[in-house]
Each structure stands twice: as C-alpha cells, then as structure tokens.
Amino acid sequence: MTVKHLFEDLVVRFNQKAENDAALQKELEGITRKVQIDLGSEQYRFILENKRITSFDEGRIENPDISLISDPLTIEELVSGRMKPMKAFALKKVRVKGSLDDLLRLRKFF
Question: Coil, strand, or helix at residue 41?
C-alpha cells in the first residue's frame, strides 16, 4: 500500500487553507517551487505556484527547489500525528534539502 492518498489529502487541505488564510496567502505571494518527495520505494512531485499546490503526481521532477527524503511509515506517522515533524527531523527520519525559508514553508504542509 502506498501513501499517495495521504499526500493527496494533504494537498487538498493545504490548498483550502491557502485559499482561506490571508496570512498564508501573503507568505506565498510570488513563490514558485518545485518539490520532490523521495520515500525510497515511492516518488512524488508537485509544484507550489500561484498560492497553491498543483501538478501533484507520482514520479520525479527535474531540478527540484525542495527535496523531502523519508519513508512511507514515517509519513504515515506524521500525518496521523503519532510523530511530530520536529521529532522526525531530530531522529533524521525526514531530511529536507532546500533554503531555510522553504523548509519553514514546507512545515505548513504537515
């Protein structure tokens, strides 16, 4: 079983929040980022543009601005709330490559 459905739900929730949260809209103003999610056995990609996530799909993206590296079990634990994002980073169960500003934005995805 894949975690694709978990990411699809996260994308819907993020886009709804971005649509209704004026502070988040301001933060996302003018931002375009290509994101690669590498879970070893699963690869996903999406684009953050025009204050929303688009083009979510399986596979790789060329020259990502942000790369998230983890595993399916950790993603399930993060989404369910059994593990907090900071704990996952501290235990190196999640690694992110990108600028500090981008890392802080990505945190809002979870």
Answer: coil
Give the separation between CA 60 and CA 44, rounded to whole angstroms: 6
Claim: this prediction has a pTM higher than 0.70: yes
Q: Which pLDDT score, from 0 to 100, does residue 104 have?
A: 72
Cα–Cα nearest to 108, from 36, 21, 6, 8: 21
- Show the domains of the chain with their CATH numbers: 4-98 (3.30.1050.10)
Closest CA to 28 of 7, 54, 3, 4: 54
Q: Which residue has the tokens 């209704």?
A: 20
Largest Cα–Cα separation, the chain: 37
